[in-house]
Write a structure and sequence with these properties.
Elements: H1 2-11, H2 13-27, H3 36-40, H4 43-56, H5 62-85, H6 91-109, H7 117-173, H8 179-209, E1 219-222, H9 223-238, E2 242-245, E3 251-254, H10 256-272, E4 280-286, E5 290-297, H11 330-340, E6 344-350, E7 354-362, H12 367-376
Parallel strand pairs: 2-4
Antiparallel strand pairs: 1-3, 4-5, 5-7, 6-7
């Protein structure tokens, strides 16, 4: 019985393929843009493989089973890679194509009577495995395409951005510029700096999303100076709405550039999610082991169940006060920077009290030890 079913599947392979292609084109939107060869190039292999499974009833020695399963995985991944190469396909469509195939296989094979329970299980198991393998490969290829796109985009942006920043700096250095002209140049420079930060944020957040830890170089850094400079730039961009509470100096062993970008993102968010002209308070203090940097705004509270989601890529709060600019990656980057410094981030948000993002940033290596190591080197 099993051999007859296997032979019937081989005999009816072209019928199954043509029916599957017809239904896929009719029911899967992205299939209309795919060539016939692309639609068909992996399924003949899959049907041959399924015929072998039905013919042997999976009664093979261990080595044969292992080789059979490896080939099954390869075929499923081939299908997933094919679909990922067509940029219009989404994962749900890849899975739906297999659902269509399953229905057609049963329709064709059961025209002469129902299949046995064992045969149905073999087919269902095979389809399930193929779906899983195709979905995994589809996702992997899409991630690779996204990575290449992001690196190409950021590389192409850097050259014109650098050129524009250099020209703006030349304008700012000219002594014959009037007040309004210099103010305009400063605004242009501030916007260019923002674009540059967004490019770096996109690259770093993509690494974080891939599970990588940011690779940062640490050196002696005055965090109080970093905070003052960021607040001064944000004041230029958003106006005089910031209150800074900070000591004159606070030195530690940090990466100043990454902490600058983290603070810029926190302040941008504080402005974005708070009513216009309300105060945004930036506070810097310390204990024996860490600096504590707090950014507080007077906006609507964040629901407790939403707080864990804040640091996921491309997540935004549904707030009417929000101005949806940027990549939606700011808080993802902030957490990545804190993780690289082996620090912690805490969110405090209550009705009537506003929202605070509190960064605990360890001082890092003992400065004297660090200096001695550098001197010795």
């Amino acid at each position: 019985m099993t051999g007859k079913t296997s032979n019937r599947l081989k005999e009816k392979k072209e019928l199954i393929l043509s029916r599957w292609e017809e239904r896929s084109v009719a029911e899967v939107p992205s299939a209309e843009t795919a060539a016939s060869l692309v639609l068909r190039n992996s399924l003949p292999l899959y049907l041959d493989h399924l015929s072998e499974a039905l013919d042997t009833n999976r009664k093979m020695d261990f080595r044969s089973v292992l080789l059979h399963d490896r080939e099954s995985i390869r075929i499923g991944k081939l299908h997933g890679a094919d679909r990922a190469g067509n940029t219009s396909y989404v994962l749900g469509e890849v899975i739906f194509e297999y659902h269509i195939l399953r229905e057609i296989i049963f329709q064709v094979l059961e025209t002469e009577g129902p299949l046995s329970a064992i045969q149905r299980d073999i087919i269902l198991d095979s389809i399930e495995q193929a779906v899983n393998d195709a979905a995994v490969k589809f996702s992997e290829v899409h991630a690779e395409i996204q990575d290449r796109f992001i690196h190409t985009l950021t590389h192409d942006l850097k050259n014109p951005l650098t050129a524009a920043m250099m020209q703006t700096q030349l304008i700012l250095r000219r002594s014959n510029q009037t007040g309004p002209e210099k103010e305009s140049a400063r605004n242009i420079m501030s916007s260019l700096n923002r674009v540059e930060r967004m490019v770096h944020d996109l690259l770093d957040a993509n690494r974080i999303r891939a599970g990588e830890k940011l690779s940062l170089q640490f050196a002696e850094c005055n965090l109080a100076t970093v905070v003052r400079e960021v607040v001064a730039e944000m004041t230029l961009l958003h106006g005089d709405r910031f209150l800074l509470n900070s000591p004159a100096d606070m030195e530690g062993f940090w990466n100043g550039d990454s902490l600058t970008r983290a603070l810029e993102n926190l302040i941008d968010n504080a402005v974005k999610y708070s009513p216009p002209k309300t105060r945004v308070t930036i506070s810097l203090s310390s204990n024996q082991s860490a600096a504590e940097l707090t950014v507080h705004n007077e906006g609507s509270p964040i629901a407790k169940e939403d707080i864990p989601k804040l640091f996921q890529p491309h997540r935004r709060l549904n707030s009417p006060a929000a101005n949806a600019q940027g990549w939606g990656l700011g808080l993802t980057l902030v957490k990545g920077v804190l993780d690289a410094h082996e620090g912690k981030i805490q969110v405090e948000s209550e009705p009537g009290k506003g929202t605070s993002f509190v960064l605990q940033i360890p001082f890092g290596e003992d400065l004297e030890t660090a200096k001695a190591q550098v001197f010795h080197t």
